[in-house]
Here is the input.
Amino acid sequence: MSTEVLIYIILSLLIGVAIAYFQYFFKVQKTGKQTILLFVLRALSVFFLLLLLINPQLKIEEIENIKPKLSVLIDNSLSTSFFKEEAKTSQLITQLKGARDLNGKFDIDYYAFGKDIQRVDSLTFSDSHTNIFNAVKSINSLEKEAIGAMVLVSDGNQTIGEDYEYVNSKQAVYPVVIGDTIKYEDVKISQLNVNKYSYIDNKFPVEALLYYDGNKSINTEYSIYKGGQKIFSKPVKLSKENNSLTITANLNSNKEGVHFYTARIEKLTNEPNTRNNYKSFSVEVIDEQVKVLILTSIVHPDLGAIKKAIESNKQRSVDIENITSFKGNFDDYQFVIVYQPTIYFKPFFNQRKSNYLIITGTKTDWSFLNSLELGFEKLFINQSEDYGASYNTNYLTFIQEDIGFIDFPPLKDKFGNITAKDHQSLLFQKLQGFVTDESIFSTFEKGEQKFGVLFGEGIWKWRASSYLREKSFEDFDAFVGNVVQYLSSNKKRKRLDIKVENLYLANQLIDISALYLDNNFKFDSRASIQISITNKTTKEQKVFPFSLMNNSYRVQMEGLIPGDYSYRVTVEGQTVQKSGTFKVADFQIEEQFTNANSKKLQSLANTSKGKLFYSHQQGNLIDELVQNKDYYTTQKLTEKEEGIIQWQWLLFLIVGLLSMEWFLRKYYGKI
Here is the structure.
């Protein structure tokens, strides 16, 4: 208690005495015993009231003993059960929990980790991935100010994340190796590279990286199977000196649709792990062969730019013809681009059957276009204007990313207001720096026919600008390709669209998204959508609801056993539905290892100034931690102030004193 507070307490006592004296003795000629009692009661009540206001505090020092932290990280992935180390791991944890000296010295926390890390509740050994780097870094962040160490119980085989071998850890890591440390002879497909898509009547490459771990020279065979039939094979020779080989197979894609394959390398004699000898993959063969006609009556650099962009896809070919001299048949083409139409284009519009794209400009006869009643018109004057483009994020007709349209040079067209109905705008006009609600590129659907309109010439500048920005024509050419693919397709637009992969790996997170549109083809966020999954072999059926996320619906599933599945997506209260198939391959990345990686765990121990132990050295680990003087208990001195008085009791006492004083004054007739 400070001197200042002590002075306040003395002054409070004096004030209480002074007030009581003034009331009961000042100018009073005769006093009795009852007056003295009333004087004492009043003096005490005033003193205690002032004491309550002062609330004197005492400084109290507390010493807290802080034990060093010991974080035990347990590998909860499938590889632990694959190596049949569950019992040893559980036994090690039980022994650590029962070590009296260890628990007396350390404050111990237990964590389970796979892809992520969490405080251990129960061990399942079912995580499909191992991220040792993340586990070690997380503990360092959590216990960055604490003295302590980590015990890492793992086989050392990491499947995702940064390399943990030389992770910068402030705390020493003591790895405990579980799993077989004996090196066995093993041959595997370590990597398979293949594109998801191929074009019909084409060839697609399948690149396999084969790896051999052993001391002999071996001869085996690498093969690719489709539907149980071998479609490719090649003899393989590997040795200790030449332990890797890359083989590329060029397979035919002669049928449209999704095709499943299995790449396999024949197992060696007495090879313990054959789970890494095969890998499944799928390829979707698509038919994008499109013959495109560009009709024009003028010469313009746009024509060459469009032709190059379309023909960047080798499945597409482009003919440029002058409308005045064209003698061919429009029906020979799946898609027609009408460039700056005039009255000369009347024959095409009279007999049009193909889907088409109109590009307007300063040479366009807008009076003729307006007379066709295509669903749009322009109130124009014979004066040109520059129009920039702004991307519409709500465009849902087909998927097109923003490739920087707002930064592209403006297009040129005749000045005037555009009115359109039953259309979707991918790009809006930007006029003199302001984005308007008028379209610069729209798509229309009328019955079975689709067409698009680009309101402006000069698209060749967009291709050049895209190249200057990205050092490649790829983004712009992909944009033109998406437009051609959508407009040339005869498929009707669907209200329900599902995005699902053809092939998933076992225990992989299966992520499926859905886009649902209302009757006006606007995104509907009110729908209740669910997916029904059926295993074709076991006939087991599971139903999952979709969740709304931004402008789409999404569902995530785990734990589907390997096999072929069919799915059906339905919308509650609607007849709209979508069905399809996918496959879950029998591939576990955690089962691709033949032995524990003690070498990397040793490097981690050396880097962090820890020490490596094996699962049978539990006692040695405990002794090392208990006897290590780097881990010691620290004392923390804490100062805090506590009130001398309990204000509730003091307030009760004040009320009691005042009540007693009032009662006595009443009794003795002092009131």
Notes: The longest strand covers residues 376-391.
